[in-house]
Amino acid sequence: MADKVSDSGWREAPKLRDMTEFRFSASTCQVEGELVPVAEINLSPQDGVYFEHHVMLWKDQTVPLSSLRTAGGMKRTLGGMPHIVTVANGPGRIAFSHNHPGELVVLPLHPGMELDVREHAFLLASHSIQYSFVRIKGLANVLHGGSGMWMDRFITAGYPGLLMLHGAGDVLERTLRPGEKILVEPGGFLYKDSSVQMQAMQLPVKIGMMRHIYMAEMTGPGRVGIQSMYVHHHAGE
Amino acid sequence: MNQYTCPYCRQPSDPSNPTCPLCGAPVDIRATVSDSGWVEQPAIRDMARLQFGQSHVQITGTRVPTAEFTLAPQDWIYFSHHVLLWSEPQVQMQTMKLKGGWNRVMAGMPLYMLQAQGPGHIALSDNHAGEIVALPLHHGQSMWVKEHRFLTSTGNVTYDWDSNHVWFTTGTGDDKEWHYPMGQYGDTFTASGGPGLLLLHSPGNAFIRDLQHGQSLLVQPSSLLYKDISVRMHLHLEYPRNHGFAFWSGNLDYRQIWVRLHGPGRVAVTSVFQPAEECEPITDFSYNTTSHRW
Predict the structure, then answer these.
(1) Interchain contact B105–A (C-beta under 8 A)
(2) How would residue A237 be classed by pLDDT, with cut points 50, 70 and 90?
(3) Most buried in the list A30, A154, A203, B166, measured by CB within 10 Å?
(4) For the CA atoms of chain A, what is the radius of gyration?
(5) Is B193 exposed, middle or buried (0-12, 13-18, 19+ CB in 10 A)?
């Protein structure tokens, strides 16, 4: 499959063909459908995945579920984020999907990696990946940054893991050099390496009385992933 | 001399490229034409480039495609601020105020547009699954576009808007409600001072048809994407025959709302539309409305 890179350096996430199958740990994942794709996991007995409960499409009766409480419960709840994620353990089959057109982004994480993901874009992660979150600091970010108050942070310690995201629309990735900047519509932000700095930036243009446009200024080094379908959060009073 | 004319954008084009350099339509495919004469607009291929002025735009993605512009210093584009996806910091942006502000606000249309001037890269996308439709316009050519379908245009394409004159009301007195089945206003774009490029977002697949002089057609009002300004339109109401299942309700309640298009000219529709809801009796309608009772 050709590596598709636009003139300005954005690389398209590879389109997963219908029924594509790949392995992680001792388990397999098969991707079904192309418009609103489904990730069907065949978990081996020693493996597990965790996810937000609303993305579970179906599962074998025998697959046990458990809850995993995250830190910062009340604050996350007030921010519209779940403070409990659900864990499914093998053996058995379980399937996940979001409910809007887009594509699944498969991000194998090597030991020692840190990745920040916009809220609610996370579909599932293998149990070897540590899950935390970053509260986006600064009032300007809270009010005007479309990525809201929280970003999920995924860290691999000693073992590799698999992280799957759902990008709305098409997903593009670009690698920023140290100090290189790009302005991204906050609603279009999908993920970034934790080394990439992100802050809300007011553009020097007005779109009405006291209304400005805000973009997310991303500063390298590291990868930035965006999605082409988004809820825009440009205007702030 | 190049005799090839792109069947989709109708402009002289180059058949040696895999895609039309003006509208991005694939050159090496056979046209898909329905029995009734609708031509399916082929999606612009991923990574296809369209040339305009000294600049070009590259279409990336296929589900919710992005229009990524490489702007030369002398070129600029304008667009509604909510379609801006990303931009390089050196791209100069400023607001472009539009006439008739109050009416635009009341109709739910953007009050301002943004201008982006090269040099630099900037990318735009609508936030719905669909296709980008590219309409290259030759000098002086105008195109009518349904509201909220506009994505962006080159700076030499002028923008105007006017009432569609397609409306009806339900209820009376304090309960009177106005309905605009294809939106209250439509956009008109005209290339001036040279060829221009207009990009639209079609929320589904797009289909084109050429109406002959005197030929007319009924389409779902919200499915209309664009049309030549020579094509006239008005509201058409159709009342299906009442077979007695709803004898307690007047047959005025059961109607189909169409927009009737009159040729000559090209029209385009999209496969995603919002059917008209509710069935209260219509109490008034735009002046040139026609109706048919089966």
Answers:
(1) no
(2) very low
(3) B166
(4) 18
(5) exposed
User: Dihedral of CA B26/B30/B32/B34: which sign?
Assistant: positive
B29 touches chain A (CB under 8 A): no
Across A194-208, average pLDDT = 84
Tokens standing for B10? 């109708």
Inter-CA distances, B121 with A73, B88, B93, Å:
41, 6, 12
Q: Which domains does chain A have, with CATH numbers?
A: 18-236 (3.60.160.10)
CB-count exposure of residue B230 (10 Å: 0-12, 13-18, 19+): middle
pLDDT digits (tens, 9 = 90+) for B173-200: 888 999 999 998 899 999 998 999 999 9
Domains and CATH numbers, chain B: 39-293 (3.60.160.10)
Tokens encoding A165: 């995201």
pTM for the complete prediction? 0.81
Phi, psi of A90 (to 5 degrees): -80, 170
Question: SS3 for B79?
Answer: strand
With CA atoms as reference, the chain B residue closest to A13 would be B61
Spatial strand order of the sheet with A114-118 comes to A11-12, A171-176, A222-227, A189-193, A114-118, A150-156, A129-135
Measure A67 CA to nearest chain B CA, in Å.
Answer: 34
A151 CB neighbour count, 10 Å cutoff? 24
Q: What is the pLDDT of residues B207-239, one digit of tens each?
A: 899 999 999 988 889 889 999 999 999 999 887
Give me the residue from B61, B86, B112 closest to A182, CB to CB.
Answer: B86
Q: Is the dihedral of CA B167, B169, B170, B176 positive or negative?
A: positive
Chain A residue whose CA is closest to B121: A8
